[in-house]
Specification:
This protein is α/β, with parallel strands linked by helices. The protein has 5 helices and 4 strands. It has a 4-stranded parallel β-sheet, with helices on both faces. The N and C termini lie far apart (43 Å).
């Protein structure tokens, strides 16, 4: 009998706003023996961060997005160009009128591009991170 495949999850959140919550969700998922990837697991290498996100999200089973008020940092135009044409990004640009997307927005776009199960958790209006758990 062979062991079951590992279930892979990418966990997304803007670090300065919801980083402590992301760590807690990751901890709980890992206790359930789920493989979790998040920002801290990406190593510098020849690929851009967007290319590394694309590669991991393409191989994962699901993406969990913790969404608050902030959108996070933006990749450079050169890093976006390194991905080539991403139809869901082009659709996002046309429908919103936005010329770019943050890394956190890219994580959602790439999940949609690859048809991944996507779980979105929104913070309540006016939510602030309590000081005792802020990163």
């Amino acid at each position: 009998m062979t062991a079951p495949d590992t279930y892979r999850v990418f966990l997304s959140a803007v670090t300065r706003e919801l980083g402590s919550y992301r760590k807690e969700v990751a901890r709980v998922l890992r206790r359930k023996e789920i493989e979790v990837r998040e920002q801290e697991h990406f190593r510098q290498g020849p690929a851009t961060l967007l290319e590394r996100l694309q590669a991991y999200i393409e191989q994962c089973d699901a993406v969990i997005l913790l969404i608050g008020e902030r959108c996070g940092a933006f990749p450079t135009e050169e890093h976006v160009a390194a991905l080539g044409t991403v139809p869901v990004f082009e659709s996002y640009r046309r429908s919103t009128g936005q010329a770019r997307a943050s890394y956190t927005q890219w994580e959602m776009l790439l999940a949609k591009q690859y048809g991944k199960r996507t779980y979105v958790f929104l913070s309540a209006p006016g939510f602030t991170v309590p000081l005792f758990i802020a990163s």
